[in-house]
């Protein structure tokens, strides 16, 4: 084995999920056009993108439900193409639509999953009872699942996914259609899973959800990864970030307005808006300049674009200005 390949192989083993050059087409429509992924174990990775961008296709490929047309991937240390059974044994998948059978009870849904995982009867009952309690469904365990609220069905869905003790879970738009309270409950569950060492691959249409949960976020557009990074790194890609300086002393305000470049003044409020990406380096430079000039601002606040701005900028049509997608790793 050539030693030049060892660093790449070591990196692939250390990742919960890694992929290189994944491609998938349906007829003449290219859905994935060579995407690369590296997702560390015990982290939350969020994949964003407009409808039809290929998010669900990516989940289906990595969970062995669909075969890629090209590229390579490893999931839980197993090669996707040559070890699909080992991949399936290590993962859990919850789709956009609940897999819960509404005609049977929550407990019966859990025991059905235990049977599918070939757990002994006693072990299956123990695991089912523990998970139902963990997800706040103990009191409703013997009620038909069709009587559950949307949030309860989602919790049962994830509880069923955990019966096989997967170390990697794919959550494909898990909170679609849930009310805010149920969505926040799901967020808590995801955080608890990750604290327990589980890796979560999340697709979502709720940008706040990715902002709240994900360690790293990738934006998929036109079959390619348009940008990837932490939420803060992605927000710095979009123009419009600024520092807001508020003064109570009119003379200090005028001095700063005269000396600083490219500021937007608000004479009535004694406020200056200074373009900035909000990075520590830029803030330190601005504070050092104010101190050296003997100018004191009463209030400094940093305003950065949110993920909505990032999403719209990265998924804009070809007629929109190009956006640099260089982010720190």
Describe the protein in words:
The chain contains twelve helices and 14 strands. With 329 residues, the chain is an alpha/beta fold. The chain folds into two domains: 8-100 and 148-235, P-loop containing nucleotide triphosphate hydrolases (Rossmann fold, 3-Layer(aba) Sandwich); 242-303, Alpha-Beta Plaits, CATH 3.30.70. The chain has a six-stranded mixed β-sheet with strand order 6-7-8-3-9-10, sandwiched between helices. A four-stranded antiparallel β-sheet has the order 2-1-4-5. The protein has a four-stranded antiparallel β-sheet with strand order 12-13-11-14, covered by helices on one side. The protein is elongated, with a radius of gyration of 24 Å.
List the helices and strands and how they pair.
Elements: H1 6-14, E1 15-26, E2 29-40, E3 44-48, H2 55-62, E4 70-75, E5 78-79, H3 84-90, E6 91-94, H4 106-116, H5 121-134, H6 150-161, E7 168-172, H7 180-195, E8 199-203, H8 207-213, E9 216-221, E10 224-229, H9 231-235, E11 242-246, H10 250-259, E12 264-266, E13 271-275, H11 280-292, E14 299-303, H12 307-314
Parallel strand pairs: 3-8, 3-9, 6-7, 7-8
Antiparallel strand pairs: 1-2, 1-4, 4-5, 9-10, 11-13, 11-14, 12-13
Helix pairs in contact: 4-5, 4-6, 6-7
CATH class of the largest domain: Alpha Beta
Integer-rounded radius of gyration: 24 Å
List the helices and strands in order: HEEEHEEHEHHHEHEHEEHEHEEHEH
Mean model confidence by pLDDT:
87
Distance between the termini: 29 Å
The total domain count is 2
Helix content: 25-40%
Major sheet: arrangement of strands:
6-7-8-3-9-10
**If helices are DSSP runs of H or I spanning 4 or more residues, what is the number of helices?**
12
What ranges have pLDDT less than 50 throughout 5 or more consecutive residues?
1-13, 318-326
């Amino acid at each position: 084995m050539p030693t030049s390949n060892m660093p790449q192989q070591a990196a692939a083993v250390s990742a919960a999920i890694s992929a290189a050059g994944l491609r998938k087409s349906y007829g003449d429509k290219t859905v994935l056009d060579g995407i690369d992924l590296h997702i560390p174990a015990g982290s939350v990775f969020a994949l964003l993108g407009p409808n039809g961008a290929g998010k669900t296709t990516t989940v289906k490929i990595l969970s062995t439900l669909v075969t890629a047309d090209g590229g390579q991937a490893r999931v839980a240390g197993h090669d996707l193409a040559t070890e699909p059974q080992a991949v399936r044994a290590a993962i859990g998948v919850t789709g956009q639509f609940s897999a819960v059978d509404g005609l049977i009870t929550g407990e019966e849904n859990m025991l059905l999953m235990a049977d599918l995982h070939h757990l002994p009867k006693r072990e299956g009952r123990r695991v089912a009872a523990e998970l139902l309690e963990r997800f706040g469904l103990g009191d409703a365990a013997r009620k038909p699942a069709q009587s559950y609220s949307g949030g309860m069905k989602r919790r049962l869905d994830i509880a069923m996914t955990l019966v096989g003790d997967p170390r990697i879970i794919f959550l494909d738009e898990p909170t679609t259609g849930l009310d805010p309270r149920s969505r926040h409950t799901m967020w808590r569950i995801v955080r608890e899973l990750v604290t327990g060492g589980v890796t979560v691959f999340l697709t979502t249409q709720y940008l706040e959800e990715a902002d709240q949960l994900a360690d790293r976020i990738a934006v998929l557009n036109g079959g390619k990864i348009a940008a990837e990074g932490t939420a803060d790194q992605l927000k710095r890609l979009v123009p419009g970030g600024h520092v807001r300086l508020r003064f109570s002393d009119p003379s200090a305000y005028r001095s700063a307005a005269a000396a600083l470049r490219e500021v937007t003044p608000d004479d009535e409020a004694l406020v200056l808006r200074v373009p900035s990406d909000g990075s520590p380096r830029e803030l330190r430079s601005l504070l050092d300049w104010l101190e050296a000039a003997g100018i004191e601002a009463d209030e400094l606040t940093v305003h950065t674009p949110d993920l909505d701005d990032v999403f719209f900028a990265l998924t804009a049509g070809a007629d929109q200005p190009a956006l640099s997608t260089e982010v720190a790793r």
